[in-house]
């Protein structure tokens, strides 16, 4: 156990480690952001079948000025950004670009890969942008490239002029990036590539958000017990809302409240993802929980107030809550013990790359001037979906592993229980068989006792009452009764030698009383055969009974000692002994079994019989 001093010292170390980790996370994300920009392919390369226009003349349009009002042009290099702030009189930026018409007769076209926000394009004074009616609503062009064919009648020999006028309905940015003019096929390919990378990827993300949202909702409905799965459909709903603002800005509801809803959806997505991972990995840090809620609330308050902070717009500053939520998400992934090392590395890398790409989008949207070479906001969302999907896939894989282990355990239990049931059925069958045998044995015992036993007792009583006493007949009848009693006892008792000896004692004590003899009983322990059967015990008891009966009736002994060990029995008397030679030739009918019968029976049951006799008594030793 830790001492109180050890616990007090361990707490600051853990807190210091957490603080260092929380500070290292934004540094790591920042380093990834710089590395991505350094490795990014030049987004505006030269063309072999076209011309890149990266030099222009700029004239800022003022509010309430007559149209056209641009007389004061100054040279600028593209990309060029103009920031519109509150209180400024600038409402638009007019760019003038020049290019020489090529000698070939190939169809020409132009593409503006990136413009912000509404663009009105004229070539040699002829309007080429169909969505730029002077009195109509502003058409947002900030997330899609603008492509147009330049027919022959529009162009002039020699130098031609492209006028691009950018306007914004609210505070924000006016930005123009290099424009390409060249053969229509090559220009169209450039336009399709840029459209797929920007608008196409955002629209794909919207579809993914809708599909994943439905899948996560179904998964939550199937498993509502923990894991925080209910936050994922909400996160996908938020991703769908702000993705719609990027992919279809011109079909979104008009008014500033939709822009506010889009930013609010970004905050909601980050918050729901944090809550999902917090519940999913069972992280219960109150410090991170309070920090996320406090910073998101502060960011939304700044957004509602609308005042810039440190030269950054209120919308840009409001993302501080999103940044804190992302840091806490990465902290959960790094510190959770529920992830394997490989899975943890993959998830941290995916979410870190997503955060880095999101940082490029934030810098491109809210910082003055060109800060990043290639904003990757749409890639950030795709990586985010990949991270969430990887988390759930690993969870499902682990659930499958647990299910397989549980199924295997259940199969083992079923096999064990089936074996127990089979053994129980066999035991019941044996018990039923024993019950039937016991019932049959009981019937035989009753038949012997009431039938033959009754007849022998009646015959013996008749002999005694008739006055014609025949010792030989009486002995034969008594031996028959004793033998039958022994048979009945063997049927009644279990397969135990000590119990059978006790029954012999009870049966023969009346005989000893009639001959004025007594037992000296020294049966101790529990003598046993290696493979006991009722037949072997019955044979052993017949020999013991014969030895006791002979001692009582023929030796004149008054004390008969019965002693047992673990694997032997002694029957000793203090009688006059007998002549072994004479006894060996005596017929069994003359006196019980006789020595010959005793030896034969002992050989049949595998028992060694040793008899020693003298005028001081006889000793019968049975061993096995």
Structure description:
By secondary structure, the chain is an alpha+beta fold. It has helices spanning 4-39, 184-222, 231-247, 256-280, 286-305, 314-317, 320-335, 341-366, 377-466, 471-492, 497-514, 534-554, 580-584, 594-605, and strands spanning 50-53, 55-62, 74-77, 80-84, 90-100, 108-112, 115-116, 118-123, 126-127, 146-150, 159-167, 172-176, 179-183, 518-523, 559-564, 568-573, 608-614, 617-623. The chain has a six-stranded antiparallel beta sheet, with no helix packed on it. Strands 14-15-16-18-17 form a five-stranded mixed beta sheet, with helices on one face. The two termini are 63 Å apart. Residues 1-9 have low confidence and may be disordered.
Form type: rod-shaped
- Secondary-structure content class: alpha+beta
Give the termini separation. 63 Å
Percent in helix: 55-70%
Unreliable segments of 5+ consecutive residues: 1-9
Number of strands: 18
Mean pLDDT: 83
Q: Compute the CA-based radius of gyration.
A: 55 Å
Strand fraction band? 15-25%
* Count of separate DSSP helical elements: 14
Biggest sheet statistics: 6 strands, antiparallel
Strand order of the largest sheet: 3-2-5-11-8-9
Short synopsis of the structure:
The chain has 624 residues and is an alpha+beta fold. The chain is built from 14 helices and 18 strands.
């Amino acid at each position: 156990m830790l001492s109180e001093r050890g616990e007090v010292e361990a707490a600051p170390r853990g807190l210091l480690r957490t603080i260092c980790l929380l500070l290292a996370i934004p540094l790591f994300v920042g380093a990834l952001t710089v590395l991505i920009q350094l490795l990014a392919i030049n987004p505006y390369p030269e063309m072999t079948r076209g011309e890149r226009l990266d030099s222009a003349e700029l004239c800022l349009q003022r509010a309430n000025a007559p149209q056209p009002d641009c007389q004061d042009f100054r040279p600028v290099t593209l990309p060029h950004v103009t920031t519109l702030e509150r209180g400024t009189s600038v409402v638009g930026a007019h760019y003038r670009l020049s290019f020489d018409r090529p000698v070939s007769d190939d169809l020409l076209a132009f593409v503006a890969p990136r413009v912000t926000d509404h663009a009105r394009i004229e070539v040699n004074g002829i309007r080429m942008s169909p969505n730029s009616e002077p009195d109509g609503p502003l058409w947002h062009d900030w997330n899609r490239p603008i492509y147009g064919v330049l027919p022959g009648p529009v162009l002039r020999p020699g130098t031609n002029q492209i006028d691009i006028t950018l306007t914004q309905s609210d505070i924000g940015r006016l930005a123009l990036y290099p424009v390409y003019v060249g053969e229509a096929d090559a220009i169209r390919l450039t336009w399709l590539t840029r459209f797929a990378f920007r608008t196409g990827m955002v629209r794909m993300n919207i579809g993914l958000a809708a599909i994943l949202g439905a899948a996560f909702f179904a998964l939550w409905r199937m498993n509502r017990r923990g894991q925080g799965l209910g936050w994922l459909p909400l996160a996908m709903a938020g991703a769908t809302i702000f993705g719609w603002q990027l992919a279809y800005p011109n079909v979104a509801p008009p008014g500033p409240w939709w822009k506010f809803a889009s930013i609010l959806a970004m905050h909601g997505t980050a918050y729901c993802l944090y809550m999902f991972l917090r519940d999913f990995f069972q992280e219960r840090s109150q410090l991170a929980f309070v920090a996320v809620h406090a910073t998101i609330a502060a960011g939304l308050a700044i957004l509602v107030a609308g005042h810039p902070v440190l030269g950054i717009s209120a919308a840009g500053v409001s993302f501080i809550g999103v940044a804190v939520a992302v840091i806490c998400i990465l902290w959960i992934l790094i510190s959770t013990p529920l992830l394997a090392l490989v899975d943890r590395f993959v998830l941290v890398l995916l979410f870190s790359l997503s955060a880095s790409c999101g940082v490029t989008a934030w810098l491109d949207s809210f910082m003055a001037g060109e800060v990043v070479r290639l904003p990757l906001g749409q890639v950030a969302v795709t990586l985010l979906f990949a991270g969430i999907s990887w988390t759930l896939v690993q969870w499902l894989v682990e659930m499958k592993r647990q299910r397989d282990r549980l199924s295997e355990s259940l199969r083992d239990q079923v096999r064990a229980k089936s074996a127990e049931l089979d053994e129980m059925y066999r035991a019941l069958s044996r018990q039923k068989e024993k019950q039937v045998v016991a019932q049959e044995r009981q019937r035989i015992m009753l038949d012997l006792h009431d039938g033959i036993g009754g007849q022998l007792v009646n015959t013996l009583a008749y002999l005694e009452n008739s006055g014609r006493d025949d010792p030989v007949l009486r002995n034969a009848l008594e031996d028959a009764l004793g033998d039958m009693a022994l048979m009945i006892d063997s049927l009644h008792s279990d397969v135990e030698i000590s119990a059978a000896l006790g029954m012999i004692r009870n049966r023969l004590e009346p005989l000893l009383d009639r001959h004025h003899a007594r037992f000296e009983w020294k049966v101790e322990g529990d003598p046993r055969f290696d493979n006991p059967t009722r037949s072997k015990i019955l044979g052993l008891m017949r020999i013991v009974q014969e030895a006791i009966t002979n001692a009582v009736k023929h030796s004149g002994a008054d004390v008969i000692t019965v002693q047992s060990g673990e694997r032997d029995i002694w029957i000793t008397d203090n009688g006059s002994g007998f002549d072994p030679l004479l006894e060996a030739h005596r017929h069994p009918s003359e006196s019980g079994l006789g020595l010959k019968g005793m030896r034969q029976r002992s050989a049949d049951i595998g028992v060694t019989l040793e008899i020693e006799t003298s005028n001081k008594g006889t000793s019968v030793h049975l061993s096995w």
